Amino acid sequence: MPGADVRAQRRYSQDIAAGTTDSAGVVAFRDLLTGVYDLSALRVLTPEERGLLPSGLADVTGFAGAATVQLGAPQTPVMLPLFTGRRGGVVISEVYFSAPQIGDNIYSTATYIELYNNGDTTLYLDGKLVGAGPYWFWDFGDTQKGFFPCSLTTQWQNDPDGLWSPDLLRLPGGGRDYPLAPGEAAVIATDAVDHSAIDPRLPNLASASFESVGSADVDNPSVPNAAIIVQEFSSFLGRGVTFISPLGGIFFVADTVDLTAVPWMRPGSYNNQIPQIPRARVLDVFTYKATPEQLVSVGGDRYCQPFINEAFEREPGRFFDGHGFYGIARRKIGTANGRPLLLRTKTSSRDFERVDSLTPGWVR
Hints:
The protein is built from four helices and 26 strands. The protein has 364 residues and is mainly β. It has two domains: 5-86, no CATH class; 90-355, no CATH class. The radius of gyration is 20 Å and the shape is globular.
């Protein structure tokens, strides 16, 4: 594909080789060190190109692909497939997943996930599921409760039929109680309070659309509560679901599901049975890994391959670098009918970017 932006990043390095494919769809990177590289390509359609698409493809915004490759001397030719990216409807538009150090304490309850209507018709959030996907993306061996070697967990982590969710919320509503108009955003908060009173760099979530309420939580009476369906790992002293997973994570939003009709299982020493959310019900996924510096601090790269089945996602972004005040936002690629149009190619490394200012409830 001509005009695609191609990037190659060596494992444990922040250095990125970048180039644009020529008229034959080829780009060459010279003088690279041998090693393992994360390779990705993105071709965003221009407004003029989108205007030429037939009606059945009017929601196509671009093409993307990713792969992990071993580069050796003298040269390594790589054929990288690109897949069609579509606008979607309800998408994850921003995530705050940090637990910064404030004074002597770790502050972990300001996390949130923001949803955005990237389509052209009003959608309803009633009954939508928001949760974490499988946590079996890291090879823990047999040493930690609830975690296992990749050799055992790949069957679940790479399941093409659905996402096994150990931490899951269901939004309230009877069907049409919580509309989300095109271009509008909704925030699901751990705690719907003004966290900026603790530190001005933290978000004010007092006007969040929904909040997770735990056993030892202060409930904001003006913010509807999201029901906790299952909570295996993300609780912090009874404060509800926190959207934090330090080594990496998978977050998703899905259409409502009859959870009595889906598979459940209790893996190993888990405390709870966990459900499989069917692939056909999953609307959008965001995935991330730790940065190279963070990987060094935790003793190296032990990610399982694949991180997630490519039916859901093709490459996580290297976004988590510890405990900070930054957010991760979906990239804006233009406007549609005067509203922000966000990139969605199921390639989080390209769809999302780090932002230093948190804007819950507002898409930049």
